[in-house]
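hey so u asked for the seq, here:
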Amino acid sequence: MEPLPDADTPRADLKQLPDASFWLGPELATLYGVWTAEHLASERGLLEYALRFANGEADLDFLKDLPASSDYDELRRFREANREEEEKKAATRRAQLMPLLVGVLSDRGKARKQFLPAAETLLTRIEARPFLRKKRGGVSLGYRAIINNGAAFYAFVAVLLLDRRPGLGRDLRRCELKSCRRFFLVRHGRGRPQNRFCSSEHLRSAHDLEAADRMRRLRAARKRK
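ran it, structure tokens below
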């Protein structure tokens, strides 16, 4: 199988912003799905992008949204000729990502020993480039991480998950609703943050199920008496 065409600088036509903190290569779209501007704006956004993929919510067929143009013909031909192989690669990536997520949730210390050595080596595949953010009244210097392959992206996600700064891996949770079990990051704002469920709907569903279970136990106890 021929390697996926890839440039030194990822294509800006894959919905990327000129002042984004991250630029991802086309291979990432075929493996992890189409990203949004929010995903590329911050480290937390990049984690959200990875979790969406881990939860099976990613749109891997990114070519359908691109206009008919010779610029995309090579990518389209590759995708169509190797669709089955690309889907297998995506499944392999998901299988690699799941133990990392579960390990971070269960024992961060053990996960650091297990995942960091390889991740540290793979980080050398990521390039950081300075750029200017032009705003009214002046400019500011920013740095953009260029990630062009799935292995480097996996390593970067592993490091973010094991980072001890707030807002990153320490906010990782898994929904406690048995019919869901999706991974999510705790959202902080007004009021008490929701640590157990990925949404308010699933919080209500869990409470309803718990109430129904309590009622069944109460009825069973009364029947035994």
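The radius of gyration is 21 Å. The chain has two domains: 1-172, 175-225.
lmk if thats what u needed
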